[in-house]
Design a protein that fits this description.
The protein has 391 residues and is of the alpha+beta class. It has helices spanning 4-11, 19-42, 47-55, 61-71, 74-103, 105-134, 164-173, 209-213, 241-248, 323-340, 342-345, 355-361, 364-390; strands at 145-152, 162-163, 177-183, 187-192, 198-205, 219-220, 236-239, 258-261, 264-271, 292-295, 309-317, 348-354. It is 49% helix and 18% strand.
């Protein structure tokens, strides 16, 4: 027994009518084919002959669909609209598209591939922009975190770096911040003595950094203020969670043991949480994962001349203190440093801006251009599919 309704739906192009009217039309055509099939069998025709006569009732399905669409009065289509409203129209459009794609698999493949390319590119880029530019920094009260910058007043376009001596003076003199921390550029060190030698990415940071960010060690501890002693280096190290797992098998007994880094022995005092990643400068925008963290005092050039600027500085505003107040204070401190140390600080000015602004600053235009470009690609993909539909 043939299912004539399925046969009609499989051959009839999409109709520009509502679902109820379409069901009625399909039923009428199926009944006509069923009657032709039955009449043929009754007259002595074989089953294949009867099936052929039923098929012959409607030879050109495309022409039949055009005729039905032309015959349907607008008033009949309008009569269906109030019953389903927007939802009814959407369902009709989906049904129309599904049947059209089923009848044209090659077109369906091209349309899906085109849209997948446009949507996939947008999703990937938006994920990146969201992580870098749209989300808040992943720390406690990120809006209270500020970047403290020292740069040439006549060349503000140059990147801001601060010397260790200036950092210590700023840290000691600032009253609008509850904490001020310094971060070095990324340093590569080589770990030996535990299997194959491995190059690690590291940072030298002051003891205030982790408490300022609201980050506690997963095991062990972070640096103590005493380990920031400018006159005596502290040979201790904090490991990243990934290095602890991959190189040391997540062994908690690593605490208190020594590891050989660049020929020196450093005692492991802690391991950072698995989800921690420093998002500020100089790490922002790089693919670097920091493996090891050293106290600032362990940096060989921390006690170098005041004019050697190699640190990024960040701070946390005290409760109730505005950004403007901190800016006024740091500018006064910058002027005093220029007066006290004219050989190294004349022509340099200090300022404060939100840490999130510093992180995003150099990438803002590029990110927005990239987002606009992939948005245009998605628009073109949709336009191409629309053109294929109209072709």
């Amino acid at each position: 027994m043939h299912d004539w309704r399925d046969y009609v739906r499989g051959h009839m192009p999409p109709l520009a009518v509502g679902p109820q009217r379409e069901n009625a039309i399909v039923a009428e055509l199926a009944l006509q084919m069923e009657q032709a099939y039955g009449d043929a069998l009754a007259s002595g025709a074989s089953e294949p002959e009867a099936f052929g006569r039923a098929r012959g009732q409607f030879g050109d399905w495309d022409a039949l669909a055009r005729e039905i669409n032309r015959a349907e009065r607008p008033a009949e289509r309008e009569a269906e609209r109030p019953q389903g409203g927007v939802l009814s129209g959407a369902v009709r459009d989906v049904r129309y598209a599904a049947r059209f794609l089923k009848r044209n698999p090659a077109f369906a493949a091209i349309a899906v591939a085109t849209l997948a390319f446009g949507i996939g590119g947008n999703t990937a880029v938006f994920t990146m922009v969201d992580a870098v530019a749209l989300r808040s920094l992943p720390y406690r009260q990120p809006d209270r975190l500020m970047a403290i910058e020292t740069r040439k007043a006549q060349q503000p376009e140059l990147e801001a770096w601060t010397s260790a001596a200036d950092f210590f003076d700023i840290r000691d003199r600032m009253t609008t911040f509850s904490a001020v921390a310094a971060i070095s550029p990324i340093w590569s060190v080589v770990m030996t003595g535990r299997g194959e030698a491995e190059r690690l990415e590291s940072l030298y940071v002051s003891a205030e950094l982790f408490p300022m960010l609201g980050v506690n060690a997963a095991i062990g501890r972070t640096f103590l203020p005493a380990e920031d002693n400018r006159t005596q280096a502290s040979n201790v190290v904090v490991l990243s969670h990934s290095l602890w797992q991959q190189r040391f098998g997540a062994d908690r007994k690593i605490l208190g043991t020594g590891v050989n880094l660049d020929g020196g022995t450093y005692t492991v005092i802690g391991v950072l949480p698995a989800n921690f990643r420093y998002a500020g400068e100089p790490v922002a925008g790089t693919a670097s994962e920091i493996d090891a963290w050293f106290p600032l005092s362990a940096n060989p050039i921390v006690n170098s001349i005041r004019g050697l600027r190699f640190l990024k500085v960040a701070g946390r505003l005290k409760p109730g203190v505005s950004v403007r107040q901190s800016q006024d204070e740091i500018r006064r401190i910058g002027l005093r440093l220029a007066e006290q140390y004219p050989n190294s600080n004349r022509g340099f000015a200090c300022d404060v801006q939100p840490l999130s602004t510093q992180v995003m600053g150099r990438f803002r235009v590029a990110m927005l251009l990239l987002l606009g470009t992939v948005g245009f690609v998605l628009l073109m993909a949709c336009a191409n599919v629309a053109n294929l539909l109209l072709a």
